[in-house]
Write a structure and sequence with these properties.
heterodimer, A: alpha+beta, eight-stranded mixed beta sheet, 24 strands, elongated, B: alpha+beta, 3 strands, 55% helix, 14% strand
Chain lengths: 886, 114
């Protein structure tokens, strides 16, 4: 035979192997013949020849290995064998692949979403992990924004940071006269883009001197989106003059598309130097010179060699020092450094808790997926224990078997992960439909996160591999002979251990499923209860539309006139029964503004927080919202700056501060003036509908006018609320076309907004709970089916001896019942702990007992369904076939 | 089965012997086994089967060639023949083996004196 090339060999390996086998056969024949010739019987001769030769299979294997590329070829062989194995158990393989896919997809989707909100709150910023938020804290432990003067001191004296930036987000009017739009903007320190490491997509940024001279830098940076939307990406934009709040600014450049500003969840379109505050808010230029006026959000970039705790310590020390030297304005104030995702601005503050719960739920599902894969693979391993023992006995090296099993597990994992990837892409798209419509796209754009996907896939694949090779490790412990002689009942020690492991896995799966069911149930209950709580006012048939008088460049007198004018116009429109305006719509995101009060005759407890939330309102506010006045009178148009200062308080206020005294006539000090209580109203919810009654007060907007606040008109009409909203917008436009309106919608729609994130979270939790339950059902089904298969012979005997269907069903039920009870007990116990941990986020009647009961019943039903099929199969067993099995 | 210890040849020993025998004349597998046992006075109880993977290795490395032919007992057998590379390889192996043996002998002789 000619010496073969490697290519020739590779192509004709099959023939090579055949020749090798032929050769061995020829050897044995020749030896046998020779022994016969020496006088042995043919049978003895053949045996003797084989003995002398050794293990034919092993030698053939060794001979072939000579020709194989040790890795690639045998891996291909393994893959082919593994595919054959998968085809042989299609249901099991499909289930493993599907559950892996579901687990990977679901967790990736939620993780990606959570990550973009919690872990990447400043998209577009460079090296964002070094950026922290610096918040000012109040004596009562709350937080507030930071004043410009404090910020300048932070920047000057703090040593831990490469740079500190400040930003004050506010609504702005863009354009001139009729052609105005409202946009969100930020007044920022000149180094804002430097500290966040944002490079312009086009043009330039602010000169570093713009912090110094007030009003001297009329420059603006616009967002990429605004540039595209309003100027269609016009390249001559730089240097152009645009009007912001009726003041001309020159466009310096365009921010990159990924950058949405410093408010997580808010699309910021315009950045203006903070030194231009006086031009943006005509009444507010003094803000920059007043330490007590806190409007800025501060970001700090940590120096590379400084750790977070060190920086935090410096901030706390320095702010304590500032509180001691700056007297009145800073008394009792402090400062706190925190990761941006923990800071209190933006939608993330409302979404943080639901997202953390979702993340935990995802973790649960992922755990169940892994347990399930392990469970099913272990089941298959047990049925294959004999095959593996056989192959070991025939001389296959253990290393080889391990690789074989690993290949099989990897194949399943790879299919699962691939399917999971597609499902994740699909899910992240469909998630858009769940997203609350009021929120900006940037926050809730659940783009698929490659890193997260890789992490989840790795976890699931890792678990599968572990489960896959378990039997191989297992096999090394179990004695060969035992597996050979073991009958159908699996008598070997290895199998008993494996069965126990599987039962524990199923119990764990069911317990985790119970936890996720209870969790979803508790949040659903909370959501339902929250919606059913009366807010203390009647939002139905009320329309709203908001304005910012400062945006129009009005001074105080003109603004007051304008507000009254619009309210009158709306009130006199057909169908409108009452109209009013307020500076804070109850149940908005955020709790509004507060004032530090002194109540005549009330001695505050030490450290008592006397900062009370309040509303600045017009007459007819209570009538419009149908909040009952229980004592005294409403404000009238006569309660203006020239008359006695008056106040209306709620019942909780009377209860807390006046303790049974008559409220009317009591004097309260705020804004440095004394107000007289002229009315008491019923409690209404102003922050969250789930809050307990809280002291609250109202003063006439005409007596305490805050021009920088936006004002919202509220009106009640007998007809359609949508028509009412249109009417309100029309009247506003008629009063002054240049004042842009926003938040024009029915009040009921508006106050539902904050509930939306809860709603989304609840839906996602429900989805995860369903997935968890399905997985647990599959696990239970797998174990029961397998146990029944093992007991086929026994069942056959019983049926042959006259056992009825009910008896067989009882055997199966006993199997499933034990697992179910254990799973339920563990799950419910764990749920109690979970419910306690989540208590602050829940709003339940009766501790959610009904939820626990419902979850238990659901699990029972799921278990019944999962055992139904194996039971029917066991009952329908033909005793003859059963006994012949094996 | 033979006592496992008696077939504990050092790696490459079997191949070296095969090449040595094939250098005399081409042989098929069974004849090679017979020749090894005869020539070694049955001191080397080679498991017959283990010869074949060794032959495959030699074949793969191009040290021997094989061709199907007919044996003296009129059987279809694969006859192996040493190649030029095989001859060269045998030379190297033989001398290195001789050196190794010499070394072992020296050490063993030392042992017998004490």
């Amino acid at each position: 035979m000619k010496h073969r090339s490697w290519l020739d060999r590779a192509l004709h390996r099959g023939r090579l192997y055949d020749e090798f086998s032929d050769e061995i056969r020829a050897h044995l024949d020749e030896k046998t013949d020779e022994l016969i010739a020496r006088g042995m019987s043919p049978r003895d001769a053949r045996d003797a020849a084989r003995r002398a030769f050794g293990n034919v299979t092993a030698i053939e294997e060794r001979g072939r290995e000579v020709w194989q590329w040790p890795t690639l070829e045998s891996i291909l062989l393994d893959v082919r064998y593994a595919l054959r194995q998968m085809r042989r158990t299609p249901a099991l393989s499909a289930i493993v692949v599907l559950t892996l896919a579901i687990g990977i997809a679901a967790t990736t989707t939620v993780f990606s979403w959570a990550r973009s909100v919690l872990l990447d709150p400043l998209p577009g910023a460079g090296d964002a992990s070094r950026i922290y938020a610096l918040e000012t804290t109040t004596s009562s432990g709350g937080w507030t924004p930071t004043s410009w003067l404090d910020y300048r001191d932070f920047r000057k004296y703090l040593k831990s940071f490469d740079g500190l930036a400040a930003a004050y987000p506010t609504a702005l009017t863009l354009g001139e006269d009729e052609n105005t739009v409202r946009a969100w903007g930020e007044l920022v320190s000149a180094n804002f883009f430097d500290v966040l490491r944002v490079r312009p997509a086009f043009g330039g940024l602010f000169p570093s001197s713009s912090d110094e001279a007030e009003g001297a830098q009329p420059a603006v940076v616009i967002s990429y989106e605004l540039w595209q939307r309003r100027w269609h990406g016009d390249s001559t934009i730089v240097g152009r003059v645009v009007h912001i709040n009726r003041f001309p600014f020159t466009v310096a450049g365009v921010a990159p598309a990924a950058f949405h500003g410093s408010m997580p969840g808010q699309q910021i379109d315009i950045w203006v130097p903070a030194a231009m505050l006086g031009q943006i808010v005509p009444t507010g230029s003094w803000w920059l010179r007043d330490r007590g006026t806190r409007t800025f959000r501060v970001f700090a970039r940590l120096k590379p060699n400084v750790s977070f705790p060190v920086a935090r310590e410096e901030v706390e020390r320095f702010t304590a020092y500032m509180a001691s030297v700056n007297g009145g304005a800073s008394k009792g104030m402090g400062g706190r450094l925190m990761p941006v995702w923990q800071s209190h601005w933006g939608m993330q503050d409302a979404l943080r808790s639901p997202l953390l719960v979702l993340l935990a739920a995802c973790g649960l599902v992922l755990l169940i997926v892994c347990a399930n894969a392990a469970n099913l693979l272990l089941a298959r391993a047990i049925t294959r224990a004999r095959e593996l023992s056989m192959r070991l006995a025939l001389g296959a090296p253990r290393r080889r078997l391990l690789r074989q099993l690993l290949t099989e597990a990897s194949l399943l994992a790879v299919f699962g992960a691939a399917l999971g990837l597609f499902a994740a892409i699909w899910m992240s798209r469909s998630l858009h439909s769940l997203i609350p419509s009021f929120s900006s796209a940037s926050l809730l754009d659940p783009h698929l996160d490659g890193g997260v996907l890789a992490f989840t896939a790795l976890l699931a694949v890792g678990a599968t591999l572990l489960a896959g090779i378990a039997p191989a490790l297992h096999g090394s412990r179990s004695a060969l002979a035992e597996n050979f002689t073991a009958g159908t009942r699996g008598g070997s020690i290895g199998q008993v251990t494996a069965t126990r492991t599987r039962r524990l896995l199923v119990i764990a799966e069911m317990a985790l499923a119970v936890v996720s069911l209870v969790g979803a149930g508790l949040f659903y209950e909370t959501f339902r209860n929250t919606r059913s709580v009366s807010p203390g006012f009647d939002a139905d048939s009320v329309g709203m539309t908001a304005v910012r008088t400062t945006l129009a460049g009005f001074d105080s007198a003109r603004a007051e006139q304008f507000l009254d004018d619009v309210a009158d116009r709306i009130r006199s429109s057909p169908g409108v029964t009452s109209a009013a305006y307020t500076d804070h719509v109850p149940l908005s995101v955020g709790s509004g503004s507060w004032e530090n009060l002194d109540v005549e005759g009330y001695a505050p407890a030490p450290n008592e927080n006397m900062k009370l939330f309040r509303e600045l309102i017009s007459p007819d506010y209570f009538k419009t919202l149908r909040i009952p006045i229980v004592a005294g009178r409403d404000f009238t148009s006569g309660d203006d700056s020239s008359s006695t200062h008056v106040m209306i308080v709620n019942e909780a206020f009377v209860h807390h501060f006046l303790n049974g005294r008559a409220a009317l006539g009591v004097r309260v000090k705020g804004w440095g003036r004394w107000f007289t209580i002229i009315g008491v109203v019923k409690d209404a919810k102003f922050y969250r509908v789930t809050d307990p009654p809280t002291p609250y007060f109202y003063v006439p907007a005409k007596q305490v006018y805050r021009p920088e606040q936006g004002y919202t008109f509220l009106a009640r009409a007998s007809g359609s609320v949508d028509a009412l909203v249109l009417t309100m917008q029309r009247e506003l436009h008629a009063a002054d076309a240049a004042v842009p309106a926003y938040n024009a919608m029915p009040l009921a729609t508006y106050i539902e907004g904050p509930l939306q994130s809860q709603h989304v979270a609840t839906q996602l939790l429900a989805l995860l709970a369903v997935i968890a339950s399905i997985l647990a059902a599959i696990g239970l089904y797998g174990v029961i089916t397998y146990t029944m298969t093992q007991r086929t012979k026994e069942l056959g005997v019983r049926i042959a001896l006259g056992a009825q269907a009910i008896d067989v069903a009882r055997i199966v039920a006993a199997q499933a019942g034990g697992l179910l009870v254990a799973g339920l007990l563990v799950g419910l116990a764990a749920s109690v702990v979970v419910a306690r941990v989540l208590a602050s986020m829940l709003f339940l009647a009766g501790g959610g007992v009904t939820v626990f009961a419902a979850a238990a019943v659901a699990m029972l039903v799921i278990a019944a369904l999962a055992t139904g099929v194996p039971t029917r199969r066991a009952i329908g067993l033909d005793p003859v076939t059963a006994l012949r099995a094996e | 089965m033979p006592d496992p210890k008696s077939r504990d040849l050092f790696p490459g020993a079997l191949e070296m012997m095969v090449l040595r025998l094939l250098k005399q004349r081409p042989l098929h597998g069974y004849a090679l086994v017979q020749r090894i046992q005869d020539a070694s006075n049955n001191l080397l109880q080679v498991e017959e089967g283990s010869l074949y993977p060794a032959l495959q290795r030699l074949l793969k490395d191009g040290l021997v060639d094989a061709e199907w032919g007919v044996s003296s007992t009129n059987r279809r057998v694969r006859v192996y023949r040493i190649t030029r590379a095989g001859t060269k390889h045998l030379g190297q192996e033989t001398s290195s083996f001789a050196r190794m043996l010499e070394g072992i002998n020296l050490v063993m002789a030392l042992g017998s004196e004490t």
